[in-house]
Design goal:
Blueprint lengths: L11 E4 L5 H11 L3 E6 L5 H5 L1 H8 L3 E4 L5 H12 L3 E4 L3 H6 L4 H7 L4 E6 L12 H8 L12 H24 L4 E5 H8 L1 H4 L16 E5 L4 E5 L3 H11 L5 H8 L4 H10 L4 E3 L4
Parallel strand pairs: 1-2, 1-4, 2-3, 4-5, 5-6
Antiparallel strand pairs: 7-8, 8-9
Helix pairs in contact: 1-3, 1-8, 7-9, 8-9
């Protein structure tokens, strides 16, 4: 797709957000056509050390510059960038931003047309409480101790919510000519994602928590398969194609005779919702 066809073509974004949520949000905005300038501290972004290839992917297509915001010259350099920007992404705690003169009241006074998406850990007065995806998931009840989560759901879903807030802010600015402040609290995101479990959908014995044989994970001759024939027509089609009686035991015996990839091919030929379980 040409740049002129992208919905955010011409929109200038400045981000000082590091780690994962902010860079992931900036990456998504860049894919939508925004011109993104990422401002990193002299020490760099921790993500670059933790996952270099992932960092490179999320930074692709962006201008990455190093600015020391602890110096007056660095703050002036950032302010010059913000003068020409429509959107500013941060992931710093509010007190840290205030020390840099980047609190919303100061920003909006200097740049009335600029919008800010502030990614914080907790909402309201708790916004300065430090944390990461792990603590937000702990707060939301989505962890299964002692295992660490393999998917950083609060960070990544928080990034998507930040994109939604960014688009909302840009829409408001286009209509009013005035920027707005939008806040994304990652603990709120994690709590929202925990709602299916809270309401019993995914807990043991829940509707999609293991009570239905047509929605589960089964061992194959090699690997595992995930069967998700929830809708009656899919379940009926699966039963007709497999000739099993629908019990969990019959499904276990059925899947044990071929590899997971074989079953995936078999299911796709028949339009059935089944996939081989893969590693990331």
């Amino acid at each position: 797709m040409d740049d002129v066809q992208l919905p955010l073509a011409g929109v200038r974004v400045v981000s000082i957000a590091t780690n994962l949520p902010g860079p992931a949000a900036a990456h998504r905005l860049q894919l939508l056509g925004a011109q993104v300038t990422k401002v990193e501290p002299p020490a760099g972004d921790l993500l670059a050390a933790a996952a270099p290839a992932y960092y490179t992917k999320l930074s692709q297509g962006q201008e990455v510059i190093v600015v020391d915001l602890k110096t007056a010259a660095g703050r002036e350099q950032l302010d010059a960038l913000l003068q020409d920007a429509e959107l500013f992404i941060t992931s710093n705690r509010p007190t840290a931003l205030a020390k840099l003169g980047l609190d919303w009241s100061s920003l909006s006074a200097r740049h009335p047309g600029l919008s800010q998406v502030a990614i914080v850990g907790h909402p309201g007065v708790a916004a300065d409480v430090p944390g990461h995806d792990l603590t937000y998931q702990a707060h939301a009840g989505t962890l299964q101790p002692p295992l660490l989560p393999t998917v950083l759901v609060a960070d990544l879903a928080g990034a998507e919510r930040a994109v939604a807030e960014a688009v909302t802010a840009l829409h408001i600015a286009a209509r009013t000519g005035v920027g707005s402040y939008r806040e994304v609290a990652l603990s709120d995101v994690a709590t929202d994602l925990a709602q299916p479990a809270k309401h019993g959908m995914t807990t043991p014995g829940g509707f999609i928590g293991g009570v239905l044989p047509q929605y589960g994970i089964y061992a194959a001759a090699e690997g595992w398969v995930a069967l998700a024939a929830l809708e009656p027509h899919f379940w009926a089609a699966f039963l007709e194609a497999s000739r099993v009686d629908g019990s969990r035991e019959s499904l276990e015996a059925f899947f044990a005779c071929r590899t997971a990839r074989d079953w995936e091919h078999w299911a796709h030929e028949r339009g059935l919702p089944l996939a081989a379980v893969r590693a990331p």
